[in-house]
Amino acid sequence: MTARTHHVALTATALLGTALLTACGGGAAPVTGEDGRTTLTMATVASDSCAQGFFGVDQGIFARHGIDVTLDVVAGVPELAAAVTSGQADVACSAPTAIASGVSQGLPFTMIAPGIAYTKDNPGSNLVVPAGSPITGVADLPGTTVAVNALNTLPHLASRAMLEDSGVDPESVTFVNLAFPNIAQAMETGQVQSGVLQSPFTENEEAAGGRTIGSPYDYVNGGQPFVYTVWFGTTEFAGQNPEVVTKLREAMAEVSEWANDPANADARRASLAAATGQTAATASTSRLSNYGTELTPESIQSQLDLQVRFGTLPEPVDAATLIAAGSTS
């Protein structure tokens, strides 16, 4: 049995305060009944980056693994941390960089299973310029303004790495924070000269004559695969429920294998359209992401190193310390 609930957004500042206060107390309640079935609430957002929850429910994969899931669909990424620390959700989807930042501020987070995975042929994030732009490559970016969906997150940090590794001073480029739907309009009006976009916004801009000039994610791990969204919970939850961590990891691996199979593309698009409210036409043109099937320290370490490199983590972090026991094979 599955339910989906929706919540109104709060401010990020208020949510961080709530998360920090909640993390100081409370406990993880048992989630597995005498019949061996596990009841879980999963907090997620309605996007492809966190869509495994929808696929797992719609395809009955969680149920086959003995997990009865309630999906708690929140308004935005900041609410995910508060949902977990408050006990509103057992697990949630976020980025490894967000988890590392939270842990550095005292939040008791641990990663359980992988989400979206970067591959060279499907990077998931692209630097796009509008139709008619004179910009042809990274060397043309000094003195321009680039839009990212959030500052100090992976799209921003990876863009800084792309600039620096290409011999361009990152300080010569101005970065501004704009939501994905607003970046195209900002490029059209000249407010920004380029933007880091994800599907379906990349495809929409290219259809309007825009061009992709590269992927910042190519500079995160030397072009090698890495996982840039994860499912996480509190250390207390994982410590008290190691068998649930294993069960959820195995279920998520099957979800990822199902989603990555081209034969399931139509069913996947239908689930995604229902979850996000996209039209069938938009869903049909969106490029589908790849999902990771295994969460290892190597699959996330390069992102944490990038945070240290650009000062968003105060000191180096060993990725292995952020992964729940039993969540690697």
Automatic annotation (TrEMBL):
Organism: Pseudonocardia broussonetiae
Localization in the cell: Periplasm
Signal peptide: 1-28
GO cellular component, one term: periplasmic space
Domain Solute-binding protein family 3/N-terminal: 39-262
Keyword field: Signal
SUPFAM superfamilies: Periplasmic binding protein-like II
Protein name: ABC transporter substrate-binding protein
Entry annotated with the keyword Signal: yes
SMART domains: PBPb
Sequence similarity: Belongs to the bacterial solute-binding protein SsuA/TauA family.
The organism's place on the tree of life at top rank: Bacteria
Main location per the UniProt record: periplasm
